[in-house]
């Protein structure tokens, strides 16, 4: 392979996330990556503040994951999953059943986060078919959510920030209530769930499931909310016979300071259990695409009792052994349990170092949860411009909407993290507000 990057070809022919072919934004060429450093094609090195969108929690080129993948690659890179099984899928599923809440016993191995959400929604609908309530076909969710870019996933993303208007009637109309309001550490007022209750009272006959991201709404605005919301929500789901789908695709595997964000409800002496759980992003440590949708025995039974008699999904690369091997290795690294100390050290350093940003003129809010640090600006930022500034400062941070945020690999050093936070502060302090940005929400 020729190592010099043909930027002109890239610009003319290759789509990047949320970009235009008329006016392609600059892309940086990455030649290699190790631990928390991305090496550009021109030799410059950038400290990574993104974990490649939540995924690369152990850093790049980790020998344990590479070895596991190399071994798997030379043994069985892929085989169809219809009528065939293999050790990597079994081992991974055993691990996932062991670390998630007790109710979640069945595992569907999907190829990406969006597909895991599609699978979850399909499961909910087929479950009610199997329980003789086929009219339960609507999904209820909260505003400011993000669940992926495929059609069903899009239909439960924030209706204003998402792509509903753009695609009109092609996007299924679901039910929305206000986003959770009480902040993570504030005292929860149960009246916040009144709107949800009212919606369920009037529509529960048609509602199959509620889907939401527990504790942290990611691409819909990096909003952290009270875990008690989830406790109240679980009770409402039970009262009104509606399934609870938790989308932990961004939050799973330690990012928020708990292995799964729903475990934050422990503070209130209980763990909220989902009927269906979606995991992705950091599942393989960010080495290769893989996601899972887990469900309870009861959901699996309902689906299997449905007229179809089977769950109607089975992608070509389902259960890909190479991806499962990477995920097993990543989970083994998490099981060594260093992530807890790492994430809590990152959390306190972020708190210390980002706090002063609240005094900058264009800054609206500064917040930290686990290994996530957010500076929210008063208005939408120019992603391309800021991106260049960050690269000039030697860091890789990719703002979107009005958010300058980081979620670095857990293995980041104290010095590297300081470089990230000081770059964030430098950029946030000197920002020149631009109003030329597209207003739709994207994590691109
Ligand atoms: C990223 C994300 C998805 C979509 O995952 P992809 O792998 O990008 O398809 C779904 N839900 C949440 C909460 C996410 O953060």
UniProtKB/TrEMBL annotation:
One GO biological process term is: biotin biosynthetic process
Q: Which cofactor names does the annotation list?
A: pyridoxal 5'-phosphate
Keywords from the UniProt entry: Aminotransferase, Biotin biosynthesis, Cytoplasm, Pyridoxal phosphate, S-adenosyl-L-methionine, Transferase
**Top-level taxon of origin:** Bacteria
Q: Where does substrate bind?
A: 53, 146, 281, 314, 398
The record ties this protein, via InterPro entries, to:
Aminotrans_3 (IPR005814), BioA (IPR005815), PyrdxlP-dep_Trfase (IPR015424), PyrdxlP-dep_Trfase_major (IPR015421), PyrdxlP-dep_Trfase_small (IPR015422)
Signal sequence interval, chain numbering: none
Show the coiled coil region(s): none
Which compartments does it reside in? Cytoplasm
Kindly give the SUPFAM superfamilies that the UniProt entry links to this protein. Answer: PLP-dependent transferases
Residues bearing N6-(pyridoxal phosphate)lysine?
Answer: 281
| Positions that bind pyridoxal 5'-phosphate | 113-114, 247, 315-316
Which Enzyme Commission number(s) are on file for it? Answer: 2.6.1.62
Q: Name one GO molecular function term.
A: adenosylmethionine-8-amino-7-oxononanoate transaminase activity
Q: Which residues carry the site feature described as Participates in the substrate recognition with KAPA and in a stacking interaction with the adenine ring of SAM?
A: 18
Q: Which reaction does it catalyse?
A: (8S)-8-amino-7-oxononanoate + S-adenosyl-L-methionine = S-adenosyl-4-methylsulfanyl-2-oxobutanoate + (7R,8S)-7,8-diammoniononanoate
How is the subunit organization of this protein annotated in UniProt? Homodimer.
What family classification does the UniProt entry report for this protein? Belongs to the class-III pyridoxal-phosphate-dependent aminotransferase family. BioA subfamily.
**What's this protein's name?**
Adenosylmethionine-8-amino-7-oxononanoate aminotransferase
Please give the organism: Shewanella hanedai (Alteromonas hanedai)
In the UniProt record, what gene is named as encoding this protein?
bioA
């Amino acid at each position: 392979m020729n190592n010099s990057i043909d930027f002109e070809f890239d610009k003319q022919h290759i789509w990047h996330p949320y970009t235009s072919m008329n006016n392609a934004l600059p892309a940086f060429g990455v030649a290699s990556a190790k631990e928390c450093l991305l090496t550009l094609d021109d030799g410059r090195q950038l400290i990574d503040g993104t974990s490649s969108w939540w995924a690369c929690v152990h850093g790049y080129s980790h020998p344990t994951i590479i070895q596991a993948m190399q071994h798997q690659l030379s043994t069985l890179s892929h085989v169809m999953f219809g009528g065939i099984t293999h050790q990597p899928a079994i081992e991974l599923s055993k691990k996932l059943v062991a670390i998630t809440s007790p109710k979640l016993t069945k595992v569907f191995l999907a190829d990406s986060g969006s597909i895991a959400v599609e699978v979850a929604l399909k499961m909910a609908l087929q479950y009610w078919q199997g329980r003789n309530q086929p009219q339960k076909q609507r999904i209820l969710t909260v505003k400011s959510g993000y669940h992926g870019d495929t059609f069903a996933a899009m239909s439960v993303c924030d209706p204003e920030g998402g792509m509903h208007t753009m695609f009109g009637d092609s996007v299924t109309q679901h039910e929305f209530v206000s986003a959770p309001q009480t902040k993570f550490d504030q005292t929860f007022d149960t009246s916040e769930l009144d709107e949800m209750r009212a919606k369920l009272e009037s529509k529960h006959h048609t509602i199959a499931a509620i889907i939401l991201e527990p504790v942290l709404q990611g691409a819909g605005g990096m909003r952290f909310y009270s875990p008690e919301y989830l406790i109240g929500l679980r009770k409402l789901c039970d009262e009104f016979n509606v399934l609870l789908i938790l989308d932990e695709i961004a939050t799973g595997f330690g990012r928020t300071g708990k292995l799964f964000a729903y475990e934050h409800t422990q503070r209130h002496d209980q763990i909220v259990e989902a009927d269906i759980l979606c995991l992705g992003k950091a599942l393989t440590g960010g080495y290769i695409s893989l996601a899972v949708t887990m469900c309870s025995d009861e959901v699996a039974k309902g689906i299997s009792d449905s007229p179809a008699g089977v769950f109607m999904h089975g992608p070509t690369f389902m259960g890909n052994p190479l991806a499962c091997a990477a995920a097993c290795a990543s989970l083994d690294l998490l099981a060594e349990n260093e992530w807890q100390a790492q994430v809590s050290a990152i959390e306190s350093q972020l708190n210390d170092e980002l706090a002063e940003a609240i005094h900058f003129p264009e800054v609206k809010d500064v917040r930290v949860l686990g290994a996530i640090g957010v500076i929210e600006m008063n208005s939408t930022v120019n992603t391309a411009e800021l991106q260049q500034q960050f690269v000039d400062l030697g860091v890789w941070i990719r703002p979107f909407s009005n958010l300058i945020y980081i979620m670095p690999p857990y293995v980041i050093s104290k010095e590297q993290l300081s470089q990230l936070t000081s770059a964030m502060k430098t950029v946030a302090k000197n920002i020149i507000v631009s109003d030329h940005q597209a207003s739709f929400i994207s994590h691109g």
